[in-house]
Design a protein that fits this description.
185 residues, 6 helices, 20% strand, elongated
Length: 185
């Protein structure tokens, strides 16, 4: 039984052809089971991703056990989001984290979650991922909270126009206030 907070081994986004759009593998040095040596090489990661995509390319299921790991995934238009955990991890927790991430991305990209939009807004997608999973630990499972932390602040629409008239008006106001103060003394 795993009583550790470290529940996520990897997060992947693959496209409809099985190519990597985004991949983040977690195995911190402070993990209770020590630092893992598997899936460290890019070649091993690509082979794992290709095999995983082969098993999950058709929509239908949401959770599978692949290569001794629990894979929770979700299909969108032309992308598949994956959270990979250990075989003994809580699949409901992994699924809720994946759902929160996917829903936050849907909110931020205004329901246009496709490969092009994800690549154009990769900064926001990565921030969403970092707000959801931190070093293999699931930290947030509420999509609106994730989206609100990641969203860009709206630009201030009121512009301040400074011209000679406004400067002169400010000068006259200050001059009148100073004269009033002097007269009170």
């Amino acid at each position: 039984m795993n009583l550790s907070l470290y529940s996520v081994n990897a997060f992947l986004i693959l496209d409809a052809e099985g190519h990597r759009v985004l991949a983040k593998y977690y195995r911190p040095k402070g993990h209770p089971q020590g630092e893992s040596k598997d899936l460290l090489a890019l070649k091993d990661q690509r082979a794992f991703e290709k095999g995983l995509w082969q098993k999950t390319k058709k929509p239908g299921a949401d959770i599978i056990l692949y290569d001794g790991r629990l894979a929770v995934f979700r299909h969108t238009l032309d992308l598949i989001f994956y959270i990979i955990g250990g075989a003994t991890e809580n699949e409901i927790m992994l699924y809720s984290a994946l759902t929160a991430f996917a829903d936050a991305v849907h909110l931020l990209l205004r329901n246009q979650v496709e490969k092009r939009a994800v690549l154009e807004n990769l900064d926001m997608v990565l921030l969403c991922l970092d707000e959801t999973i931190d070093d293999g630990i699931i930290v947030e499972t509420d999509s609106t909270t994730i989206a609100s932390r990641v969203s860009r602040p709206k630009a201030d629409t009121t512009e301040i126009v400074i011209n000679e008239q406004t400067i002169l008006s400010a000068y006259q106001t200050v001059r009148e206030k100073v004269q009033q103060r002097i007269q009170q003394l």
